């Protein structure tokens, strides 16, 4: 009958001994690391370099002892704080780690270059952000508010209606009204750009004027204006070539955000997010004040 | 040619983690093969980018500097339009912004300039800002000017796996705050600056290489934001800040380019003198390559007389000095007269200038008496608001020094026009509204208590939201804006969008303000701000030059009506027989015509919508070099701190809200670039 070879007692003893040695070694190497602080040459060199950077010279022997001492104090406190789990309750540390992880995720997601199809799709989806606003071209004749004339430093003017009569009669607008430092002709400005020059509400007032004729007086932040609308362009969707650079930048930014979200979603799959069990302790379910 | 978006993958700024953590993340998610493929793809893209860069260099440029392939602007105007912008903007790429939790990029800054919202510190638990800010009126142009010095160090410290990432320097930098700032920043005050060799290697090459990638992203952001369509709605120029702080005196310059054909940034570490900066710019930025460049010295008020000092090599001949003066004047035709660190126009009572006290100089001053006058010398400690104060720390004194040199040499080393900026370190160009000031430097001043602090030399109440620059240009393009900057047809404001024209000439009509065609007449018969008066006719037809100033108040916005104008002044400076003089003339408007209630910030309604006048110099001396600039004052309005305090009551109200030593009102203003007069030689 075949004899099954059983491990000899000697072998068992060897295995046990080896295990014991390993265990001892591990506990000697790992467990004491909680209470053992090693000050090695690398650490000393780092502290010396820091000192040099801060002060412009190498530390003396006494200073180096003090640096090591301070570092050891910090290390003791750091380890005690970790042992107490303070890192888990500190919002600053949590924020910092969350931030670091977000940056790592972003790093993961180097964006590509969009091709024309991708850009066209992006334009179709976000047309409103790249649309050309409505634009208006006009000429105006300026008259400061009467109140400003009291001091005698602003130009004397005739009433706006009389000026309008001169314009309607065909007089050169460059000979009518007061000088306006920003000029008399404005070409293809958006409503926002018009209001930035003339003050809030001016673009809306222009929108109500008929084109091609000198208007009744229109108020701005500076006084009165007679306006002739020369051109109105409706808001429009741009073609790809016009907005390619802006579109591509926007596309890349969106891809980056998408990728970050996707990476976060993948990480989330590792977790079960569940509502807390209702506690049996009275009052503990109450919202905190 | 144009550059659409970059081809190399973008490396994001990261702040934390480690190479080991990153590789664990990779290992957890992906097998090795895709990693290798991605590396190959990245490598291929880098090669392509390099090839493209080489191709750029090899392509002969089509025309003069700044000329570019783009559509013509619909609103091109030979009488010149007004564009508002910010020439001094930092983002999280600047070492001294990142350490204060600023995480904006140039892309964010340009979006903000164009009217999109931005989230500012304090950061929330998700690492994003918690205060939203948005410009009510977008800017027409902006230049992101991150500090060139440590672009590579910042990048290395934030990207795990780089040689610098795990060094103690980078750890200290990432820890942030004032200590983090000093890790690299201390080098800007050293007369012999060095790169951190743990982070950058013995020869600094690792950081210079890393800087190249950041610079590429900076250019890409500007190119992406630049509107090349016929609308010409926004221009992003390419630039950086050169950060010389020798003696803890600010000698910084913003370097602004005419196009995207630019050399790598010059830094204080490699070129610790302004001569080195100019030399490197001239050598690296050549018209043949389609490059043109200006350097703009900024806030001389912290320079202890150093920033605008004129020095020549010992033993240099008059001819050499003349050549130097003229070269300096060509590359530095502008100075930043105002920014969040206060006013640099003038300070009465400094030695070496004869003139009456100018009461309007007491505006947004960082330095308060008593302080030592530098006299003709220089001092140290200005960036901490210490050391002596020089007349050259204010542009009026510097202009006078330039005139004196012009009289001596026949060349003016300081023919300075004016710009104003924010110097925001939040990436918020043009955020100059007093009512919505949320600070300018990350978590240093993101809370009302910090901004309203009065203790210490850098107390929050000394600062202000900063100013903007107005540019008169034919159209809103890089070449047109750059040309306007170079010819100084630009002006600064302390924030409001005041529009102002200044022309000088011998034959300007005295009734020009009644002429609706003033602009055409003034361009035909005179020179605009920044110009030099042509020689006077010999026929005696004009004894003295005339100047026309025409100004419009800020038109306001839907939420704020803006403030009316009070006065226009002409500031004249001249040098006669080697003696410097200044005189301020009230030429239009009325002192005290309007006021404000500092408790409610309500205006009393007094003031002017527009002011226009033609003024002739009553004391003209044809033998004396002179400059003339216009200062347009608004009626008093609430300073930002009064707006902040208005809504704070009880325990939330800091002491400075009720401290009479902290000004509650200001007279906001615009300063035009000067018109210069040079006697016939």
How would you describe what is shown here?
The complex is a heterodimer of chains A (289) and B (681). Chain A is built from 11 helices and 4 strands, in the order H-H-H-H-H-H-H-E-H-E-H-H-E-E-H. With 289 residues, chain A is α+β, with helices and mostly antiparallel strands. Chain A has 3 domains: 11-89, no CATH class; 90-128 and 246-264, no CATH class; 132-233, Chitinase A, domain 3. A 4-stranded antiparallel sheet of chain A has the order 2-1-4-3. The termini of chain A are far apart. In chain A, 24% of the residues are buried. In chain B, 25% of the residues lie in helices and 19% in strands. In chain B, helix 4 (106-113) packs parallel to helix 9 and helix 6 (168-175) crosses helix 7 (177-185). Chain B has a domain at 499-677. In chain B, the strands form 5 sheets. In chain B, strands 1, 4, 5, 6, 7, 11, 12, 16, 17, 19, 22 and 23 form a 12-stranded mixed sheet that branches. In chain B, strands 14-13-15-18 form a 4-stranded antiparallel sheet, with helices on one face. A 3-stranded mixed sheet of chain B has the order 9-8-10, with no helix packed on it. Chain B contains 16 helices and 23 strands. The chains are: A alpha+beta (289), B alpha+beta (681). Chains A and B meet through helix 2, helix 5, strand 1, strand 2 and helix 9 of A and helix 1, helix 6, helix 9, strand 13 and helix 15 of B.
